[in-house]
Amino acid sequence: MFSFFIVQSLVVFKIIKMGYFVALFGYACILAFTPPFVSFVREFALSIDNNEKILIDQVIEKNTYLEHAAKIIRHDMHSGINTYIPRGIRSLERRLDEKTIKNLKIEAPLKLLKEGLAHTQQVYSGVYEFTNLVKNETVLNTELICIEDALKRFLKRTSYKDQVIIEALPYMKVNEALFCTAIDNLIRNGLKYNDSPTKKIIIKMISQAHLAVIDNGRGMSSIEFKKLSKPYVRSEKSKEEGTGLGLSICVAILKEHNFEINAEKLENGTMIIIDILNGLDSNVSV
C-alpha cells in the first residue's frame, strides 16, 4: 500500500502519467493488500467477540454473588430484624413497669431502641424489595395505596421531614417501599445540591397524571438530568461528595413501575416531573 500511495502521488503531481501499467500496478497492490486486511478485520472481530464473552462471564459471576447477597438479606437478616429484636423489646417492656423505667432512667434508651428498630425495618423493607428485582423474571409487587400517606410515613423519621411539603396526592398502584425510596432520593438531591438559605421541597400534582418534586436549589435542565441519570455520573461543577448512583437508582425504580421521569429547570430550582398515569386507579379519586 505504501508503493501504491507513492505511485498515486506521482500521478497526482503529474510526475508520471496514468496509463495501463500504472493502473495495473494499482490493481495488483489492492489485491495484495486484501488478504492481510481481511485477516486483520477477522482477528479484530474475534477479539471483540472474546471480550464480549469475558464481560458476559464476569456479569454472570457478579450476578451470582449479588443473588447470594440478596438471599442472605431476604432470609437470614429477616429473622433478626422482624422477629428476634421486636420480641426482645416487647419482652423487656412487659418486665418493666413505668415506675421502674423512670427509676432506672431508661425512657430515652427504650425510645431510641424502638425508633431505631422501626427505622431499620423501614430500610430493610426497601432493600428487600430492591433485591427482589435481582431475580430472573421478577414481577414487581404492587398494591393500591395513598402515596400522600405513604410518603409522610416514610419521611416521619428523617431529619429533613420539616423541609418537605406534601400536598394532596392520589391513590396509586405502586410498590410502596421502592416508590418512597425513589422519591426520597429526589428529595435528598433537591436538598443536597441547594445553596438557598431556606431549603425546601414541594411534592404535588401538577396535572391529573403528573406528580412533581420541586426544589429551590441550583437548577437542572432536562439534558443535565438525562446525563446525570446514568450510573456513576456526577456533575463536574458539584462540590459535594457522592457516588453518582442515587439518581440512576431512582430512575430505574420508576421505570420498573412504567413511569416516565424528566426534569425542568426553573428560575430558582428544579421541577422533577413523573408521569404516573400507569399507576393511577380510575376508580379512586385524589
Task: Give me a quick take on this structure.
With 286 residues, the protein is α+β, with helices and mostly antiparallel strands. The chain has helices spanning 2-12, 20-95, 98-104, 107-132, 147-155, 176-192, 222-228, 246-256; strands spanning 143-146, 164-166, 171-174, 201-207, 210-215, 260-266, 269-275. Helix 2 packs antiparallel against helix 4 and helix 5 packs across helix 6 (176-192).
Q: What would you say this structure looks like, in words?
A:
- The protein is of the alpha+beta class and 286 residues long.
- The chain folds into two domains: 1-137; 143-279, 2-Layer Sandwich (Heat Shock Protein 90).
- 57% of the residues lie in helices and 13% in strands.
- It contains eight helices and seven strands; from the N terminus they run ααααβαββαββααββ.
- The strands form two sheets. Strands 2-4-5-7-6 form a five-stranded mixed beta sheet. A two-stranded antiparallel sheet has the order 1-3.
- α6 (176-192) packs antiparallel against α8.
- It is elongated and about 110 Å long.
- The model has no long low-confidence stretch (mean pLDDT 83).
Write down the overall mean pLDDT. 83
The count of strands amounts to 7
Summarize the helix and strand pattern as letters: HHHHEHEEHEEHHEE
Strand content: 5-15%
Low-confidence stretches: none
Main beta sheet strand tally, sense and closure? 5 strands, mixed
End-to-end CA span: 74 Å
Helical percent range? 55-70%
Number of domains: 2
Strand order of the largest sheet: 2-4-5-7-6
Query: What is the count of helical runs?
Result: 8
Our Rg estimate from Cα atoms comes to 30 Å
Q: Rough shape?
A: elongated
What structural class should be given to the helix and strand makeup? alpha+beta
